[in-house]
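Quick one, tokens below. Sequence please?
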């Protein structure tokens, strides 16, 4: 089954991470086992702490959703050893006419080269000018000729070397062979056969003929074959190990994780019909042709806790969005087809997902119920955020009852956790950071929810310095840090850029880039809407 990723926004907060875990678990529990929770960034200390408390591993980390080679319906031809015969490669091509090349690998599955029908034809033509076998394994010859070994010769040679000569009836007594390094192909021709054995030629191929008893000794390797002499002389050249033709070739290869845009660029400037595909250990897993690039299979995603392009995974435009479950404003994400969208005015996405468990008659496990209760408490700031609704509290209480936890204790556990003094300011800023685009303005808002905002303000100079770097790098009109303090039920604000806009929007003054906004605890409901209204 094709994987469906359930992912929250970049720089994910607890609600985003838990919503992805909860929704993936819901869909998998109701019979669809291909849903996988994903995250788009590093987890905050708070989220790590909550996941650990309830016994959950972090979702898989996905940094990009651009289409990759692994998303293509590429060919999976047999990967043959370099020791197999050319004849075996040709048979593999005949079995599947859609395959234009066969990968050749060493014993560890790593690429030696590629074999095409054109390579085989070129080699076949070359044998006309140079009809010589060089150290071809005896097993290979027996295989391609469906032969039977009649005598092995005194030396019991494991390989065959010599010029291939086809014995035809002739009116002269000139010798057919010039040296012992000869592979003589003949039929029921006793005189020629006797002369070859007496001369000690390396190998004789008997076509539809037997070996007289008196010639069963000697230094000559004798092989019988059911093929006539014409087919035998053509097939014997197909006995060479294919690695001699496929090895040491300058071939373009791609890995499963390569992005299609990069692959197209390489294919555009090369003339190969088929390209080998390698896994992370450089082992061959398939082949790619140009037509595979025409209609690539898109990754499938479900978005939770966001519906804004700037906050979502890079490469989202190359995916197939199946669903959106969110509690924020409707933004700018577009889809190719109609999809299921569930957007409700509540304080936490986990409130919506818990309701979906209820609608499907499925009670979450004890530890998952505790995890979702913690996410609701976190996102509603212990129900003190203006985004918090009666439904958030009711759902959190129901989940807490299932998990046998106390919501007040859970809130103290979440918000009293102290951030290490030496934690880098950039990490603090990017833990819960969102980018917005409104009326031609791009800006970023970071939020740190805590119970000790004064302690964070001691690092004000560091915050402003890094905020300036982020603002310049991304071309923002404004960069805001919200230090949302649960105890004072408000936020201390650091604002860089657009100071006039900020003072108008919130009817306050900034003193050295700092302001206190009592009662302001929600980025989505109290900050972004005010700026949106001002910019219009």
């Amino acid at each position: 089954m094709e994987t469906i990723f359930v992912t929250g926004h970049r720089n994910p907060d607890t609600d985003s991470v838990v919503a992805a875990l909860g929704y993936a678990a819901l869909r998998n529990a109701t019979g669809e086992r291909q849903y996988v929770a994903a995250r788009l960034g590093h987890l905050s200390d708070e989220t790590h702490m909550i996941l650990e408390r309830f016994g959950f591993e972090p979702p898989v980390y996905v940094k990009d959703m651009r289409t990759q080679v692994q998303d293509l319906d590429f060919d999976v031809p047999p990967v043959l050893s370099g020791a197999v015969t050319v004849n075996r490669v040709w048979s593999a091509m005949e079995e599947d006419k859609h395959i234009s090349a066969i990968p050749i690998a060493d014993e560890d599955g790593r690429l030696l080269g590629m074999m095409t029908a054109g390579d085989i034809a070129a080699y076949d033509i070359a044998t006309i000018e140079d009809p010589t076998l060089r150290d071809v394994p005896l097993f290979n010859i027996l295989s391609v000729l469906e032969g039977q070994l009649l005598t092995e010769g005194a030396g019991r040679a494991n390989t065959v070397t010599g010029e291939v000569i086809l014995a035809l009836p002739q009116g002269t007594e000139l010798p057919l062979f010039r040296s012992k390094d000869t592979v003589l192909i003949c039929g029921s021709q006793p005189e020629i056969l006797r002369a070859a054995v007496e001369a000690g030629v390396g190998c004789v191929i008997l076509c539809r003929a037997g070996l007289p008893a008196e010639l069963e000794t000697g230094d000559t390797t004798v092989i019988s074959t059911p093929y006539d002499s014409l087919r035998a002389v053509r097939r014997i050249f197909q006995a060479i190990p294919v690695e001699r033709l496929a090895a040491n070739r300058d071939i373009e290869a791609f890995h499963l994780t390569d992005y299609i845009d990069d692959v197209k660029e390489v294919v555009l400037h090369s003339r190969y019909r088929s390209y080998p595909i390698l896994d992370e250990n450089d082992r061959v897993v398939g082949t790619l042709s140009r037509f595979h690039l025409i209609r690539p299979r898109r990754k499938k995603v479900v978005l939770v806790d966001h519906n804004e392009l700037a906050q979502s995974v890079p490469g989202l435009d190359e995916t197939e969005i199946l669903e959106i479950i969110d509690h924020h404003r409707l933004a700018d994400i577009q889809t190719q087809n109609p999809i299921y969208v569930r957007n409700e005015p509540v304080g936490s996405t986990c409130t919506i997902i818990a309701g979906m468990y209820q609608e499907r008659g499925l009670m979450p496990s004890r530890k998952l119920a505790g995890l979702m209760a913690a996410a609701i408490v976190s996102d509603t700031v212990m129900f003190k955020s203006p985004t918090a609704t009666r439904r958030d509290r009711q759902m959190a209480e129901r989940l807490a009852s299932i998990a046998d936890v106390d919501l007040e204790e859970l809130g103290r556990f979440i918000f009293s956790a102290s951030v290490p003094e030496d934690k880098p300011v950039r990490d603090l800023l990017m833990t819960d950071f969102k980018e917005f685009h409104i009326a031609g303005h791009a800006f970023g808002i970071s939020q740190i929810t805590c119970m000790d905002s004064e302690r964070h303000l001691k690092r004000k100079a560091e915050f402003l310095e890094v905020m300036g770097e982020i603002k310049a790098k991304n071309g923002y009109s404004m960069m805001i840090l919200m230090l949302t303090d649960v105890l004072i039920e408000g936020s201390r604000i650091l604002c860089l850029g657009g100071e006039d806009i900020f003072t108008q929007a919130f009817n306050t003054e900034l003193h050295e880039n700092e302001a206190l906004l009592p009662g302001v605890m929600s980025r989505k409901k109290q900050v972004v809407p005010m700026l949106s209204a001002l910019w219009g």
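The CA atoms of residues 27 and 35 lie 7 Å apart. The domain at 425-535 is CATH 3.10.310.20 (Diaminopimelate Epimerase; Chain A, domain 1).
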